[in-house]
Structures are given as structure tokens and as C-alpha cells.
Automatic annotation (TrEMBL):
Name of the featured protein: DegV family protein
Keyword Transmembrane helix: no
Cited Pfam families: DegV (PF02645)
Gene Ontology terms for molecular function: lipid binding
Amino acid sequence: MKTAVVTDSTAYIPKELRDKLNIHMIPLSVIFGNETYQEEIEMSAADFYDMVKREDKLPTTSQPAVGQFVELFSELSKEYDAVISVHLSSKISGTYQGAVSAGEMVKEIKVHPFDSEISCMAQGFYAIEGAEMAQDGKGSDEILARFAEMKQSLRAYFMVDDLSHLQRGGRLSSAQVIIGSLLQVKPLLHFVDKMIVPFEKIRTRKRAMKRIVDLLEEDIKNGLSYKAVIIHANREAEANEWKAELETKYPNVEFSISYFGAVIGTHLGEGAMGMAWVKK
């Protein structure tokens, strides 16, 4: 049985890796005024952060049309028996539901939509693992069973410099924003029940990043091998420094670097920094 793997652009998997693993990508869009751009296709992360600085108003975002999924799934049905479609949390976007609807419409192929309950490269971990398994000839049942296993050990924490982006996008309540602003905190955030919620309130960026490392340390003290990704919003140099420091300290963890692209960057704002990890 031949299985295709699809994900959306918010996994921020580099194109070279998508091509190598044959991961099919559906883009979300970012909207500046009357102009709409498909992220990762028509707008890179670097272009996005440059444009935000030039524009007076924050952009908005939109999920893919169901028709885009129908078109892709129909095309894949010519070569594959099944599709696993991995998407960002269903409570922060309707993208997953779009895959569900399209899967019901396309009868020629069995579609398995998967709610990662998270986003960015934490979501990408699933798509990459699934694609590697598919290339090894594993079927959708085995891949989905591995996803369920991964979900048990996958963790992700991130901090933002400016809470107003999350509040404007409806991802955080006004009360939480006011409290955060008054205290000048850098809240650590994470996903609970598919929603972004505060984990802890921390006073400085440095302490917030240290707290993320403490949380990683708690999980990896079992001595098993993990992979971890540092995710940044236009802070590549800082991310590289952090990675170099952590690689020396934690040899049983394979570190990589990713980024918050245009759609997620719209909601988090420049300067956000996070980390996700999962047991290998």
C-alpha cells in the first residue's frame, strides 16, 4: 500500500527536505491590505518580517480553501492508495477541518486527516516521521500508531515579546494581555487541549529561555535519545548561539533550527522564541 504525506505550510519544513521526503504542502495565506500571499511560496519568513516593519496595520491570515485539498487529494489518488494529512491545531485554524471535508469529498483515495494539536516544526516532526516511514513502505495504520506514540513525549514551549499580536488574533484573552503588559512579563506559552495558553509568567527573556531548557532537562534525564528544534521569529543569530550552547551540554539530543513563518509570525510577533522536542 502506497501512502502519501501531506502537511500545511505552518510546519515550516524546508522545501529541500519536503522534496527529498516527498511531503506535499498546502499553503496558508497572509493578507496585507488587499494583497494576499501564500506563505512559503509567494512570501518567505524574511520577506514577511521586513514587510511588517513597513506596514502600519498588522496583516491577517487565512486557511486554505477546501478546493485546494480536493485538487491535491484527487491528484494523489492517481499514484497512492492513502493520504495522511498532518495539520496545525484544529482550535487555532480551520485547516484540519478543510482536510476532513475534502477527504469526504474525494472518494478515489482514503484520506486520514491528523490534528497535530500544535503547530510549526513540532507539527513538522509528525510529517517528517510519517514521510520517512512511508518511504520505507509502512502503511497508514503503522504511521498513525507511531504518531500516537510521538504525541505522548512531544513537548513545545514558546515565549513572545509582545502579547498584543496574540490578543488581536483572538488567541489570548484581553485580561491575560493586560496582566502581562503591566508586569512586563515574558510569558511562557504552550498548547493545552489544542489551544495556546500561558504556562508560566516569567519576568525576562533570558529567564524564560532558561526555563525552557529546565523543562527539556526534566524530560531527557531518562537518558533516552531525543530530537529538539529551536524555533525563532527573525532571531536566527540568537537561535544559532542557543543551539551551539545546548549541543555541548546535551549530547543525547539532536538539535535543529526552524522558524515562525508568516502565518504564525502574524500571531506571535517578531522576537518570539521557542523549543519543541520529542523522543526518537
